[in-house]
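Researcher: For the annotation table, I need structure tokens for Dihydropteroate synthase-like protein. Please keep the output clean. Sequence:
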Amino acid sequence: MTGTLTSAIRNVYHSSAKHSVAIALGSNLGDRFANIETALRLIEQPDQLLTDVAANTVSVVDTSFMYETAPMYVTDQPRFANCACLVETNMEPWILLKLLKRIETTVGRVPSIQNGPRAVDLDIILYDNEIVDTRAESLRDTLDGLANELVVPHPRMAEREFVLRPLADMIPEFVHPVHKKSIRTLLGDVIRQSNVDFPMLKVTPFADYPITETRQLPDTHQVPSMGRYWTTHCSSDIQRPTKVRLMATLNATPDSFSDGSVNNTLSAALIYSAASVRAGADIIDIGGYSTRPGAAFVSPQEECQRVVPVIQAIRSHEDQDVSSALISIDTFRWEVAEAAVLAGANCINDVYSFTGPEYPLAQSSEKHLLKMREVARKLAVPVILMHSRGDAGSNKDYSQYKGGVLEGVRVELGEKVEAIIKGKGGVRRWFVIVDPGIGFSKTVEANCALLREASSMTANTPVNPLAGYPRLVGSSRKSFLGAILERPDADGTYKGRKTEPKEREWATAATVACAIQQGASVVRVHDVQDMRDVVTVASAIWSYP
């Protein structure tokens, strides 16, 4: 099924819409990211806000990354969250504009000064290739008289990086019908002329679970608050985070390769979690099903019974730093992901990137992806999507990657990511973090190559489906490190040594330093205290703030 996932998803959600529209979204008041998520959900429910409009006449089919930006024009106001989406619709532009204005009011926008603060702002940027201007003829070559009128393409988009950069995430080669330049070219022009004190940052927002405050709109699934977020610099070179994040690995299993049966009791899991947070962990990754070769089958019910009580106990911890810690659920099952998030997890970490353990990909992979995508979209949480070739316990397919391992990972993982974010029902692009899958379906040499050149995996090249995504690297204690440590040195004076997973912390440190040099946003580790030191020093060397 390789090469067909995206088309299969599109067939499931076939659209007869006549028009493709780009909409810009911004917010700098209240819960910015939740405001934007609410607006996006309302865009797909026009019948809730307009009379004589049928349901399903607007579909969001792609989203950009999310950005934090400095205010423009009126600078004495909070920073904005900005993004864009592509929609398919049968609505004429003035009806769509009416819908967007209703959404602004519903979400909480109130009258303010021009370019001033707002709970949400929605603008039609592009409508097919059409040029629309409802102003008087005498005003059409000016920037006057824009209030309560419709001008498409948006007349100021060519000067706004916060509009062009999100568009470039989705349609970089689209040619502006007035300026006759591609979006990529227009963005380059703006960047060359830019001189701002606060450059745009790419944002990964985290939803707060369990939900304690209700923000329920009629016939709209509840949108969680999103007060916490991670940021990454925008760069044409190596894309570096503003801070490298440490993910602590908590295996609530009796048979994990590294620490099976160590933290699989509730008291031990809490001790590890508290110690990890105090040592500087930014997020705790909890798994209840080992991915090691030969691991015993665990039912979804048993997996939930392993992880949900741990999550609930962390959320009830007496130390506020521990109880408020970000949590990810390491699972490939939608039932477990949903139960874990509703119990208090903030992120889904899936070693199969939503397609399940089947390899090569089959029809069951498509069904699995659709259900995982539906759950992730509904919950509005970040998802970590890892490259692998099926079940590590039964499939050791190390066959040659076409074009080399880096290109192979880009193509194979990129196909899944595209199917997950695009089309009706897709996950927002800003929620995706990618993982090259160190130690999964790769030779020792391939793992080393991925670590050595990891930045090229997400490089901003025109044909890279993974361009711009934040990266997680999980190399801690992996067996390929043991294989390297067993090798004699070049002249044979050192014979190498066999190691248990717990004896590979120094080897892990080398890979963590390499990951940071290559611009990883997150490193997944077992020993948080020692790896925090590695992250701190390596970040200083590679010029992080």
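Researcher: And a one-line annotation?
Model: The CA atoms of residues 325 and 379 lie 18 Å apart.
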